[in-house]
Amino acid sequence: MTHVGLPATLELFAARGLVYFFDYLTLRKSLSHAISENLRSMSNTTSPKVIITGAGPAGAVLAFLLSRAGISTTLIERHKDFSREFRGELLMPSGLEPLHQIGLWEDFEKVGQVEIERFRIFINRKPFVTPLVNPAKVAKRSPRWVSQPQLLEMLVKKAADFPNFTLLRGTRVKNLLQESDHVIGVTTDTHGKLRSDLVVGCDGRTSIVRAKSGIQAQADTLPMDIVWLKLRCQPRNVTHSVHFYIGRGRLVIVAPTYDGCVQVGFIIPKGSFKTLRELGTKALVELITRYLDAEVAETLLSADFGDARPFLLSTVADRADEWSGPGMLLLGDAAHTMSPVGGQGLNIAIRDAIVAANHLIPALEKPVDTDGLLAVCQGNERERMNEVVPIQTMQARGPKIMLNESIWMRAAFSVAQKIGSGREIDASFDPNFQQMLMGVTSVRWQTEI
Ligand SMILES: Cc1cc2nc3c(=O)[nH]c(=O)nc-3n(C[C@H](O)[C@H](O)[C@H](O)COP(=O)(O)OP(=O)(O)OC[C@H]3O[C@@H](n4cnc5c(N)ncnc54)[C@H](O)[C@@H]3O)c2cc1C
Prior knowledge:
Elements: H1 5-45, E1 50-53, H2 57-68, E2 73-77, E3 90-91, H3 93-101, H4 105-109, E4 113-115, E5 118-123, E6 126-132, E7 144-146, H5 148-159, E8 165-169, E9 173-179, E10 182-188, E11 192-195, E12 198-201, H6 208-213, E13 217-220, E14 224-231, E15 241-247, E16 250-256, E17 262-269, H7 273-278, H8 281-289, H9 294-301, E18 311-314, E19 317-320, E20 324-325, E21 328-330, H10 345-364, H11 370-402, H12 407-420, E22 423-426, H13 431-438
Parallel strand pairs: 1-2, 1-12, 2-8, 5-15, 6-22, 12-21
Antiparallel strand pairs: 3-7, 4-7, 5-6, 9-10, 10-11, 13-19, 14-17, 14-18, 15-16, 16-17, 20-21
Helix pairs in contact: 2-5, 2-10, 3-10, 8-9, 10-11
Bound molecules: flavin-adenine dinucleotide.
């Protein structure tokens, strides 16, 4: 008996295997062709031109401007509403003026806010200087302490006036969709894959767009954290003013809120919050009042501590190495996380959105060419760097001076306080202060409303 059966069976298996393999290749090719055709047709019919991740101030302003210009825009926000956490609430003239330019002033005035007429600066609990924000002299509009949730709600409501605007609330962007290194959309937890010509990451300090694009960032080391606390008490002696208390290695900010409460920010050495929280709210407020003048201390101590919830904002300041790539752009904190010094984050985010819209609208009105769009995004980055870098440099200097407890600095503070002794001055007295109020570059909305 010859054993011819085995090789013959092997040949048969090999031949079948080859057939299956070619079938598989053909099937895979036709499937992938069908998928990409499908995606292409989605892009032509239903896909928005722009997906914006994150409805913070940068994302909401940009979405409003693009939608109004007739560009189909989808704004994706992971939260169902905007009231979940405290955010920067100080709007400087640098953020107010652009809101006026884009035609939202009337709507903005209906947002909960307190007009700030003066900043009162104290050193070692004694008045140092009181910069006045006289609208006629220093800025057209004085700063406002606003309700950020109401501001964001107003912005998305205005964007919703345009049929090409879609807001996906309660939807989280999970990843970027990429095709040969080009970003072509995002994947989400509730709506699956969504395609667009451009993805704009406005998703803040923990930006998923930045992380998934692989763009690196350079971080500044900051020696401080900030504890925020809203107290239910009559803001008797802080109406229309924001107080800054410097000295003994701490900085305390006290401001009136739109709903008749007082917002307190307590700057502490990094990593010391755990011990402070263990004190309980009342003891924490008592500790804070040791840095305040007697009148404001009394106001805070009269508060109802029942519903006060101190929380920590871990301060971060960084700047992404690049703000764009093929099919994507970063704006606001996603591109450059702002330290809380000088209340700049909200203002810079609004200014970023205005400048980006100036660059993007003309480019997106035409059929999109990815290389051309990338060049436009890079132009936007160059323009914004001229403001973001100097502001971040000023912000980094502040804590080094204010939290310095050396004997020399204490002596300098003491002399400065005696010279200033609470006098009222023009808020433009100092070029750095002026830039924090008015911005560094000229941001102008360029399109006709
Ligand atoms: C707790 C806190 C307190 C702050 N306090 C101050 C202050 O006192 N003064 C000051 O000047 N600045 C402060 N800032 C910073 C300031 O709020 C920011 O600089 C400013 O809001 C930046 O705006 P933005 O639009 O770039 O980002 P953000 O305002 O951070 O908005 C980002 C949005 O993206 C959403 N998002 C994030 N990830 C996803 C995702 N994967 N999918 C969908 N949506 C997503 C978020 O929910 C958020 O709504 C604070 C920030 C925080 C977080």
